[in-house]
From TrEMBL, chains A, B:
Residues 205-307 form the Peptidase M20 dimerisation domain. Its EC number is 3.5.1.87. The lineage of its organism: Bacteria, Pseudomonadati, Pseudomonadota, Alphaproteobacteria, Hyphomicrobiales. One of its GO terms (molecular function) is N-carbamoyl-L-amino-acid hydrolase activity. Gene3D superfamilies: 3.30.70.360, Zn peptidases. CDD domains: M20_bAS. This is N-carbamoyl-L-amino-acid hydrolase. It comes from the Bacteria. It is an enzyme of class 3 (hydrolase). It comes from Labrys monachus. InterPro entries: Amidase_Cbmase (IPR010158), Bact_exopeptidase_dim_dom (IPR036264), Peptidase_M20 (IPR002933), Peptidase_M20_dimer (IPR011650). NCBIfam families: hydantase (TIGR01879), PRK09290.1-3 (NF006769), PRK09290.1-5 (NF006771), PRK12891.1 (NF009527).
Length: 405, 405
């Protein structure tokens, strides 16, 4: 059995790297805070005899040998980066829960058949560098390493430069590790488990998601001296699209549609805005429904903006199709939750996860635990001591079960 | 007669302090670029024998003595600060046109009865530190010097700190100068003069303007895992208000209504926005119409946001009532334009100007010249060689006429 207090202490200890006044974490990928938590993680893994290797885009692998090291390793992992105002559990629980499982194997001297690895995937959040799940995507062949290196943040700094700056560009070729399986523990980030009082979410897949970027161009002008009928106000145009996107989400439930980021230029109180950049996030478990949402979004641009004398550019920058996880691994999670006596339910993930890409190259699945009010990507994100412990225990049980089978 | 080439050369020379790739100027008040243009201006005034004094909030006064130095000085002036993506003429023409008038007096050895002064007012734009016309407002008793010093920009730096940093806090008490009159030359910043092919706008007043700040608060949440019906999306709420404000402007023409600045938090592609800050600028020549616009704006907040489970705070941060200029000075401008043979028309300014505050403490008026397409607060802002010359000539004529009377 895992040690719940040790897991909790590690969660609270690492929460200090980028800890915010409101009890959350700001640990953007490849920032100084990301380096701090990576250093800590490496030291902890080495302290229990694991060998840590790093690939060319900063993915970290901590390996504990098995009885037969010719077998492909069983991986457990998630990510240590966070949103700009993120919580203490999103991603972190999956890595530290894996660390706790590994510490338990080590302490007990339990010998697995296959080697076991903990993985920390780079830039899962996609908040600093879009898209999300970037480095697991490269690992799975969805993107090239060059593509990852060339992503830039909103200040123009590149992934590649920042990776080198914090000293986490490794030697290993991306994707050189071949997993026998991967299990990712994560908080649900939605309200269902809490609502239904279930401790464990048995995750059968991930919904499809598409990201877009839009730039609306009008004309900077004086707010006092420019009559209403002469304006080309890019922000009013963007406002109409923001509303249209929200309406698309409402029409296509359980799909969701969001504008999360907006940059207004020149952003001055007495200037009619001349240019607005914003992003769109559309998701649905059903790819055909996603197609329909995309069509409606594009129609909204075309119907709304030109009559306002506004030009626009629109680009699909990311398309992550719906994913189904491996039945034999799902069975291991069910077995692990049963053994530990937890109530569970099957569910499809609304959030994207590294597991969604890894499923392309290895049998993969996920384990969810509840979070208070379904709240995530929020500094108030909260998962209890018992819920964290339950997740790590089921993770360990599932790994052992898979290894035994 | 003024020297049009010398005026143009000075305009182009100072356009380098903060010059942008697109031919505009970025010279935010109290920035390094503002210091550069101030240093240049001081040197030029001293080169023609003027004495330059600076008051406690950075207003600069360049004085040329008259025959009777007991008489209150006749002031000519405007501002050298610009918008973040401003043009080469807004404000600058008023200061350099005055410099050209002064150079002409000097060159001709023309002796005025009263002393004549050129003024450069600090922070007219209000873009870095709100509100606009801040230092002329202190000069006229609308604000205290302490209020000005405590204004902060969006990065939290204060007016007082920044004034000291660039070395332009003077010794003189604000308002110690008592003007006999002030004339402000400016580009129109709107389309009327160009439309009607008039060279000179005889400005009879300035419309009323009110600035507000709004913060809308919802809840940060995951864009993928948060169902539409559970969201408290602050950006969708803000978008509705942006549209409502635009509609208020359209309903109350010739009034105008604008959201110019917006800050979205946490501004991440996969986070439902939890907090949005934005500003509103309402203007109308008629104070009663402004009252009605304000009422409709407040009603829009109340009707729109609470049903979306969004909280908000709203604050009127600036109220600059409609202003009427001094008839005896307006007559001098008419006379000056007639003498020079320019077509003119009377008009009310849509933009705010330092003259609007100075009118509270001295007889004041303004002279407008056209700008291409009525475009201002835009890097493409353009006023021709001849138009700049015409403005400076009428300014000089009006000052001499006033001095003569
Ligand atoms: N789990 C998680 O928050 N991932 C970020 C990627 C996304 O779903 O937007
Ligand atoms: N003239 C000018 O652009 N002033 C800025 C103040 C305002 O009207 O917003």
């Amino acid at each position: 059995n895992i040690n719940p207090q040790r897991l909790w202490d590690s969660l609270m200890e690492t929460a200090k790297f980028g800890g915010t006044a409101k009890g959350g974490i700001r640990r953007l990928t490849l920032s100084d805070e990301d380096k701090q938590v990576r250093d800590w993680f490496k030291a902890q893994c080495e302290a229990i005899g694991c060998t840590v290797s790093i690939d060319e885009i900063g993915n970290m692998f901590a390996r504990r040998p098995g009885r037969d090291n010719g077998l492909p390793p069983i991986a457990m992992g998630s990510h240590l980066d966070t949103q700009p105002t993120g919580g203490k559990f999103d991603g972190v629980l999956g890595v530290l829960g894996a660390l706790e499982a590994m510490r338990t194997l080590h302490e007990q001297g339990y010998e697995t058949n296959a080697p076991v690895e903990i993985v920390n995937w780079t830039n899962e959040e996609g908040s600093r560098f879009a898209p999300a799940m970037l480095a697991s995507g490269v690992f799975a062949g969805a993107f090239t390493a060059q593509y990852a290196n060339e992503r830039t943040d909103r200040d123009g700094k590149s992934f590649g430069e920042e990776l080198e700056r914090i000293g986490y560009r490794g030697e290993e070729k991306v994707g050189a590790h071949k997993f026998g399986a991967m299990f990712e523990l994560h908080i649900e980030q939605g309200p269902i488990l809490e609502d239904e009082k279930k401790m464990i979410g048995v995750v059968t897949g991930v919904q499809g998601m598409r990201w877009y970027e839009v730039t609306v161009t009008g004309q900077d002008a004086h707010t006092g001296a420019t009559p209403m009928y002469l304006r080309k106000n890019a922000l009013v145009g963007a406002a109409r699209i923001i509303e249209a996107v929200d309406a698309i989400g409402h029409r296509h439930q359980p799909g969701v549609a969001t504008v999360g980021l907006i940059e207004n230029k020149p952003n001055s109180r007495n200037v009619v805005p001349g240019e607005v950049f914003f992003t769109i996030d559309l998701r649905h478990p059903d790819e055909q429904a996603l197609d329909a949402m995309e069509k409606e979004f594009r129609a909204a641009l075309e119907v709304t903006l030109p009559p306002m004398k506004l030009a626009y550019e629109e680009k699909l920058i990311w398309n992550s199709p719906a994913v189904k996880f491996a039945p034999e691994l799902i069975a291991c999670v069910r077995h692990g939750a049963e053994t530990a006596g937890y109530a569970m339910r099957e569910m499809v993930s609304g959030a994207g996860h590294d597991a969604a890409y890894i499923a392309r190259v290895a049998p993969t699945t996920m384990i969810f635990v509840p979070c208070e009010g379904g709240l995530s990507h929020n500094e108030a994100e909260s998962t209890s001591f018992d819920e964290c412990a339950a997740g790590a225990q089921v993770l360990l049980n599932a790994v052992i079960e898979h290894d035994r089978r």
